[in-house]
Amino acid sequence: MSTVPAAPKKVNRAGLEILPYRGGKTTLCAGCGHNAITERLIEAFWELGVEPWSVVKLSGIGCSSKTPAYFLSQSHGFNAVHGRAPAVSTGTLLANHQLRCVTVSGDGDTASIGIGHFMHMLRRNVPLIYIIENNGVYGLTKGQFSATADLGAKLKTGTVNQLQPVDCCLAGIEMGATLVARSFSGDKRQLSAILKASIAHNGLSVIDVISPCVTFNDHAGSTKSYAYMKDHDEPLHELDFVPAFEEIDVEFDEGESRVVEMHDGSKLVLHKLERDYDPSNRIHALEVLHEATRRDEVLTGIIYLDRTRPSFTEALNLVDAPLATLAEEQVRPSREILEQINEEFR
Amino acid sequence: MQASPNVPPMSAAQYAHDERPQRVVNDFSIQVATVNGSGSQTANIVLMRSIFQMGVPVSGKNLFPSNIAGLPTWFTIRASCEGYIGRKKEIDFCVAMNPETAQEDVMKLEPGAAVVYDAPLRLNELRHDLHFYPVPFDQLVGPVCPEPKLRKLVRNMIYDGVVAHLLGIDLEETRKALYKQFGERKRKAAEMNWGAVVAGRDYAAAHLEKTDPFAIEPMDRTAGKLIIEGNTAAALGCLFAGVTVLTWYPITPSSSLAEALIHYLGRYRHDGETGKATYAVVQAEDELASIGMAVGAGWAGARSMTCTSGPGISLMSEFIGLAYYAEIPVVIIDVQRVGPSTGLPTRTMQGDILSNALVSHGDTMHPVLFPSSPEECFTMAQAAFDLAEQFQTPVFVNMDLDLGMNNWMSDALPYPETPLQRGKVLTAADLERLGGFARYKDVDGDGVPYRTLPGTRHPKAAYFTRGTGHNEFAVYSEREDDWIQNMDRLARKLETVRGRLPAPDTQLAGGAKIGLVSAGTSRYAMEESRDQLSREYGVDASWLRLKAFPFPVELAGFIDRHDRVYVIDQNRDAQLLLLMRMNMSAERIAKLRSVRYYGGLPLDARTVTDSIVSQEGL
Ligand SMILES: Cc1ncc(C[n+]2csc(CCOP(=O)(O)OP(=O)(O)O)c2C)c(N)n1
Ligand code: SF4
Ligand SMILES: [Mg+2]
């Protein structure tokens, strides 16, 4: 596990030190990309001062899905079954739509056994942060190809993948996620900004993070290795995140940067690199993704952002209080109503 | 009367029926054979309700195919002055509207039965031992229904008028039933259909001479009662249990339960001021998702449920094991149908008794409730939510297609007199007082630990839920002692559950040598079969009707009192009996006998009686 994240202050806005944002000691391999993602999550939640009790963390099964045990020890966590965390997370938010939900998954978990649930979570725009810790293999079952393995990618055993990969970002944009991003576990600054933007976003954020498996997929011939990412990572923009509570006036050169105001008033700043990229253009987002794949580039950054579509729990028009906390008077109709119903069947 | 050579051979018991009395009043069955999708359901329900409104106990069973339109369907109405509402094997009065099946329908009848039929079918040429009433439906429908497209539907209403006339049903009751069925919003349709009823009645009065013995006469045995489907009653149970999350995936025969619940939630569960919902319903992408969502919701504190049938339970298996082991409340209503695989999807079976009790991998065992009537569907659905939350575990309500989708005469649904039981949930204030908690610790010695809900504003509230090994503090553990202690506590918890389940209904016959044990809808055949055994064979049998698993302690005593105990199962493999055998002494097991029926129809009394008679050598 890497060391304490950069933190100038002792306590955050919620008056908490970083400790409650950490979790149990990781049991993953040293150098596993998943550990770095855990660190970024700890930082992001701490720096934004999110109260741990208001967060739930869920996952499926896999090395990646173990990680919720390693961050936010004061948040309820649920390591459920393989591939089906989207369903459990959806149910959790039905019971209590005030919770902030982080769901961690792997590429096997999401793109194979759980792809049905993943697709329908996208359609519903369930308001949660969905992180795919993507290493192109099944880590926990010792290195078989996953469905995100790229064409021509090679396993340590020499086996070459000849099947078309599932691109979770393409699916996310096509099927209805409202924030779609790709990042690399080794890119601290970018991943941090993306995670914070997701915390500020109202709707489903899908973050596909290339996260090398040092034990089974970090060799030459792998397209999910540290070395491969060093050569092929193609950021769309540089990102900065300015939280709503930081009273800084964001002023940037018009031609150089875009400033996007998030749901909670925070600002996401997209600094222009090769092009001026507008993440609200859905068709264009799909095009750049396809184009990058054709050029063997791994496009990273916030690829798509829609701040208008209502989330699933909003569309259900639920009462303000969590359903879990409603009193008997609110959920059990009266004696008169039962008598009226009985009469209808007489 | 002369028996047709094609009539199947009759048993001795059936011959006894052959000497028909002059008039058979309020004790016979009517079967209407139509084509699926022809709108006959309304006509059948109106006919059934007319009899019910005359104070005569009735039941209505719809035998329908697994398609939307075009295949044969039969609706059976049984009128019984004795109050028997189980299926009766023999059909006394047949309405043959389906040209495809008419010949077979008529050939199956016993001598002396009556047949109303579509005149061009010339069914009267088939046999000489039946009472035939030809009706030219196509000629009659024209004048009452000018719109040719609607004739197929309105045509069926004509037989209601014909049958009402032949059986002496008060036409005013038919009129009331018809208008009730169509409701205020479809008044015009009701009027046109009423015209068809009258046309049928007028035709029968002018052209048909009654020769059969069957008649309906007013009684007073239905006052205050309801006619309701089990699925509707179960849905109402969930409504009054304060369900907050329903996640489901459509499957016959459970869909109408979800749909009824959605209807009532829409009517009664919106905040008066804001109009916002106090519930959430999600039609999931499959049963894996529907149970997953229900489990997530239960974990986060909702009263959550799903409903399905056997194929869905199979898909839910992994999640149910997770919920058992992670200790998460969730209610699963299983409206059973005939399997394996898609089997006979629109026929009834008690096919999932074992799977409900034991589903998933490893050591798993789940409380199961066995409602036998709409009233029990209503009360047990409520009990299921209380049990699930009190014991933090999946609870099954084991219904079947017969109960769920057929029309039952029921007592009025009683308003719940006890408050919702929400179980051992610690609040932030509790945590402040206690200084913390251990999620899986048996503090009270009943095997039931305390939990906190996500969102509880306290630094000690959180814990980590997993299906993997854990100790009392919900910390990952693969230690042998942690595992065994936890599994033993779960067993202790289930023992506590046993004492809190609905008690069995036991009817002891003085000095009886044999006892009967049943669960669920076998009830109606049992009530009647006990009378048959006593009336026809002079054998008294005690009866224990199980209402829940884990089975009650009374079961052992009941077996001990009798020499032989017949366990009634609506499946081939004697699932109820097998479940009873778990944890039962060899002496008691030796007393068990099995009565099984697995043909897909609701169980009838004669099948039970015949099996017991032959096994007893009577
Ligand atoms: C129903 C079921 N099938 C199979 C498994 C075995 N299994 C555990 S983890 C895993 C794959 C995990 O791969 P991924 O999601 O990519 O996570 P990673 O370990 O690579 O982070 C599999 C197949 C399981 N736990 N449950
Ligand atoms: S096996 Fe791979 S994915 Fe699993 S912990 Fe080790 S490096 Fe990470
Ligand atoms: Mg993986």
Put the structure in a nutshell.
With 346 residues, chain A is α/β, with parallel strands linked by helices.
SSE layout and pairings?
The complex is a heterodimer of chains A (346) and B (618).
Chain A: H1 33-47, E1 55-59, H2 63-66, E2 76-79, H3 85-95, E3 100-106, H4 107-113, H5 115-124, E4 129-134, E5 137-138, E6 144-145, H6 168-175, E7 179-184, H7 188-200, E8 205-210, H8 226-232, E9 233-235, E10 237-242, E11 257-261, E12 267-272, H9 282-294, E13 298-305, H10 312-315, H11 328-331, H12 335-344
Parallel strand pairs in A: 1-2, 1-3, 3-4, 4-8, 7-8, 9-13
Antiparallel strand pairs in A: 5-6, 7-13, 10-12, 11-12
Helix pairs in contact in A: 1-7, 4-5, 5-6, 6-9
Chain B: H1 12-18, E1 24-25, E2 27-35, H2 40-53, E3 58-63, E4 72-80, E5 93-96, H3 102-107, E6 114-118, E7 131-135, H4 137-144, H5 151-167, H6 171-182, H7 187-207, E8 214-215, E9 226-229, H8 230-240, E10 245-248, H9 255-268, E11 280-283, H10 287-299, E12 304-308, H11 310-326, E13 330-336, H12 353-358, E14 368-369, H13 374-391, E15 394-400, H14 401-405, E16 407-410, H15 428-434, E17 464-466, H16 480-499, E18 505-507, E19 514-519, H17 522-537, E20 541-546, E21 548-549, H18 554-561, E22 564-569, H19 575-581, H20 586-591, E23 592-596, H21 605-616
Parallel strand pairs in B: 1-8, 2-5, 5-6, 6-7, 10-11, 10-12, 12-13, 13-15, 14-15, 19-20, 19-22, 22-23
Antiparallel strand pairs in B: 2-4, 3-4, 9-16, 14-21, 18-20
Helix pairs in contact in B: 2-5, 2-6, 4-5, 4-7, 5-7, 6-7, 8-9, 8-13, 10-11, 17-21
The structure holds thiamine diphosphate, iron/sulfur cluster and magnesium ion (MG).
